[in-house]
Every structure is written in structure tokens, then in C-alpha cells.
Specification:
The protein is an all-alpha fold. About 80% of the residues lie in helices and about 0% in strands.
Length: about 80
């Protein structure tokens, strides 16, 4: 997964916190932070960051065996 640094600072902080949580295996916290980063990217209509955070959120959900949530996120990340 990639932590985003190129957009809104608070969104970048969320993505960095999400990555740290994912790395330590805290999928629920990572999910919460990636959702926040994704929502912020959507508000800014920042396509690269939407794709990056949708993909990373999907990875969290797949790691938690939540394929129902992961599938639309992967489509959005394309």
C-alpha cells in the first residue's frame, strides 16, 4: 500500500495513519483512516488519490475477509 502525500494535508495524515495501523494489523483503525482519506479525495475530485485510497481501503477490507465492501472499491480504484 502507498501512503499519499500529494493532496490535502489532513487527508495525507489520514493515509499515513491508516498505513501505520495496517502495518501493525489493526484493520479496523486502518479502515477508518482510509475511509476518511478517500472521502476527502472525493470531495476534492482528486482522481489519483481517490484511486490510491480506494485501493488501499479495499486491501483492508479484503484482509478482513469483507469482499462485499472491497469489490466496489476495487472498481472505483481502476
Amino acid at each position: 500500500m502507498v501512503a499519499a502525500l500529494s493532496f490535502e494535508p489532513s487527508a495525507a495524515r489520514s493515509a499515513i495513519a491508516a498505513r501505520a495501523a495496517f502495518d501493525r494489523g489493526d484493520l479496523e483503525v486502518a479502515t477508518r483512516f482510509y475511509r476518511d482519506a478517500l472521502q476527502r479525495a472525493r470531495r476534492l475530485d482528486d482522481a489519483p488519490e481517490i484511486a490510491r485510497n480506494a485501493y488501499n481501503l479495499a486491501a483492508c477490507r479484503l484482509a478482513a475477509f469483507d469482499t462485499a465492501e472491497a469489490a466496489p472499491l476495487l472498481r472505483e480504484a481502476r
